[in-house]
């Protein structure tokens, strides 16, 4: 995208040349590497810390996250307990060894870092990966399946705004009728409905495939359902990113160290850093014409969960319902 911006804006390349001289191409590649977090060229040098500012591959703590956390918490009316200004004020550039630098933070900020990742999980649960958000995303994928290839063509990608859906709606091309119906359904909140979800402890890809096969065998079409995998994490899979953070002490700001065993800090800290969830959605509108298909999908989903020994979120809600408990008491009596 940076290359496209330079070539498509007249005079910008000349500005780069005037500012950086003959090395302007190297400077441009340097900027791209900073954005990508690719430090292979500077690894083991005194400038290696610079690759931890925008896209930190060492521990996933960078200004990119801090920026969208502050923006989205404000937009969603959520309060973030992570103070990015305080965190930045406590950072220092320190030497790991004679020829390599990193960004270290005061040891007392460790709890503040856990709040950063706690905020991340909260945003993903309440917004980015909320079941309604993902339902809309599934519908938009059907509408814009070809648009997903646009990122490979910057001149097309830069034109992809929310306006594209309005342009589809007013287009009279017969081939766009399905897309127009889906867009109208999104605007009218006639969304794909969540049938059930579960959080397998392992082998989630295998279980996702087994559920899809079983639902297909039960005379359900691919147009009737979608099995979706959702992953919540601290950003480094099942690993704790805090163990990759370097700290320094107040009385020694020349040496840095890592917390290899967070339990020595506190027993209240989390032990699990990734959760994967399987969700089953019904793609059919909830009306009389689709009653049988939706009922079949619900029944088969329940069977799949029982066979695979997966805990059902919906079942847990039903089991704990006072009405169900009272009914069972009457049946027992």
UniProtKB/TrEMBL annotation:
Keywords: Hydrolase. GO terms for cellular component: nucleus. One of its GO terms (biological process) is dGTP catabolic process. GO terms for molecular function: dGTPase activity. It comes from the Eukaryota. Its EC number is 3.1.5.-. Gene3D superfamilies: 3.30.70.2760, Hypothetical protein af1432. This is SAMHD1. It comes from Mytilus coruscus.
């Amino acid at each position: 995208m940076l290359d496209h911006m330079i070539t498509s804006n007249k005079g910008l390349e000349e500005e780069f040349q005037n500012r950086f001289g003959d090395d302007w191409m190297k400077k441009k590649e340097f900027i791209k590497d900073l954005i990508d977090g690719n430090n292979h060229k500077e690894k083991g040098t005194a400038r290696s810390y610079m690759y931890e500012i925008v896209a930190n591959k060492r521990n996933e703590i960078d200004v990119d996250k801090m920026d969208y956390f502050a923006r989205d918490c404000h937009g969603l009316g959520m309060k973030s307990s992570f103070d990015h200004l305080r965190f930045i004020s406590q950072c220092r550039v320190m030497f790991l060894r004679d020829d390599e630098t990193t960004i270290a933070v005061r040891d007392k900020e460790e709890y503040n870092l856990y709040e950063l990742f706690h905020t991340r999980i909260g945003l993903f649960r309440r917004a980015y990966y909320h079941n309604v958000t993902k339902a809309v995303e599934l519908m938009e994928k059907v509408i814009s399946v070809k648009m997903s290839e646009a990122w490979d063509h910057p001149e097309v990608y830069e034109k992809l705004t929310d306006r594209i859906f309005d342009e589809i709606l007013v287009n009279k091309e017969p081939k766009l009728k399905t897309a127009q119906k889906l867009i109208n359904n999104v605007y009218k909140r006639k969304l794909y409905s969540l049938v059930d979800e579960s959080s397998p402890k392992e082998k989630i890809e295998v279980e996702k495939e087994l559920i899809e096969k079983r639902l297909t065998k039960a005379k359900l079409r691919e147009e009737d359902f979608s099995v979706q995998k959702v992953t919540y994490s601290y950003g480094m899979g099942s690993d704790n990113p805090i163990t990759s953070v370097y700290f320094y002490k107040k009385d020694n700001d020349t040496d840095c160290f890592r917390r290899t065993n967070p339990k020595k800090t506190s027993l209240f800290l989390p032990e699990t850093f990734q959760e994967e969830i399987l969700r089953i959605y019904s793609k059919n509108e909830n009306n009389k014409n689709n009653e049988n298909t939706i009922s079949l999908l619900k029944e088969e989903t329940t069977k799949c969960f029982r066979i695979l020994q997966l805990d059902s979120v919906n079942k847990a809600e039903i089991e704990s319902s006072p009405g169900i408990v009272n009914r069972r008491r009457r049946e027992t009596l």
